[in-house]
Amino acid sequence: MASERWFSAAHATLRAMQDSIRTDPESVPPFDVERMLAAHARDTFELHARHINPAMVGVLQTLGFDARFVRGEGAYLWDDEGHRYLDLLGGYAVFNIGRNHPVVRDAIEQAMRASLPNLPGIGMFRTSGILAKELCAAAPGGGGPGGLESVFFASSGAEAMDAAIKFARCSTGRARILACHRGYHGLTMGSLALCGHPEFRDGFGPLIGPVTFVPFDDLPALERELRTGDVAAFVVEPIQGKGVFIPSDEYLPEAARLCSRHGAALIADEIQTGFGRTGRMFACEHWGVEPDIMVVAKALSGGYVPVGAVLMRERINRAVFDSMQNCSRIQTTFGQNDLAMVAGLATLHVLREGKVVEHAARVGELMLNGLRRAIGAMPIVKEIRGKGLMIGIEFGRPESLSLRMGWDLLHKLDQSLFCQAILMPLMSDHRMLAQVAAHRVDIIKLIPPLVMSETDADDVARAFEKTVGACNQFPGPVWEIGKKLSSAALRRVSRGVGVAGPS
Hints:
The protein is an alpha/beta fold. The protein folds into 2 domains: 105-353, Aspartate Aminotransferase, domain 2 (3-Layer(aba) Sandwich); 356-495, Aspartate Aminotransferase, domain 1 (Alpha-Beta Complex), CATH 3.90.1150.10. Helix content is 44%, strand content 14%. A 7-stranded mixed beta sheet has the order 4-10-9-8-7-5-6, sandwiched between helices. A hairpin with a 6-residue loop joins strand 14 and strand 15. It is globular. It starts with a helix and ends in an 8-residue tail after the last helix. The mean pLDDT is 91.
């Protein structure tokens, strides 16, 4: 019996030691990120082709956008050969305060050292209430009574848009949503139903409904739909990202009045236009509009941690969370995580203390005017438009017979090819990264980090002067690039692969 007890005790002791070894963090060797990256320095494209998205790898290599970026800082990227690139894409407007901002990084490191009780589940989250307060104060109307006083946090802009649909439907008791042709609000099944671009919706089966699309900047069409009395919400980007389409001055104020008159919520999608992108903290402020619901994401955390948020009027929030029984009817696991909340607070601090929004307005105006002077009079340029550092350069069919031949040839194959023929030398010769604004449009969109300099803005104008200027002769270098792209374009069309990014 004594030996049995001894063996039992020894087994228990050994088991406890084994459990201790498994669960003690000090027993785990450190993970060496630098060593991992060095080991895979040359196989980035191969790994993506094998395990993630081979079609996208093919597109990037065809376009010459296959630089191996190894570092990012501010408005710039560096490749593995030491070349610096001016980033005019900004991670699709994620890096408003620049890549790897030291203030936000330090705030995240502080939060990690504090060992915060992250995601307690049943319990209060320490940091999310603080960020909610700051967001409401920064929002149109300043978070005053009856305004945008309540916040729901999500993990992305698309997830936040899904939540906004829920809040609108639940608070109004209606189901139908109005959205705009050419609008873009994300690619989850809920937000995808609002996407005004069929190439994103095709192939995914039935989406949520009912959703009705109306033309952007068309008040009579909007009023006709609202007048039926069954609309829960009208979802609109203050400036449409897929093309940088700017509405007339009366559109958003009157849309807000029409929604209020007919009992529908106005949902402003500020996912891309928010946090200084257009020279105001939020684009709605250009027209003095305070929406019922506002969706934000992208630049909120400085590019460090995925996060999105839905700001709404208190009455909408209370209509959804109307009892203890319904306190969790809309929720998401990672929405209030401490690292995202701290990153958001630090980002707002940088925007405010660094005068980033004012800088974006000034440099954006400088770049817009510089581009107009450099290429605005060229016959192939239709319009250059924008607000702040959200700029669209639209091209049109030239009058010259020889140039029309090249234009028509490229457009028969793929309407995005002409812009790509400009973007490729912009990348290879001038080391500037930009993108076509959308499928089937002749528009290049510039959405760089808001911290780019005035010198950068001048460099952009000069680079476009050279690349667009090369389009004024046919045959010429830009048209030759278009010819080389044509066979790849045919393959992309047959597989349904495009070159315009997600947002």
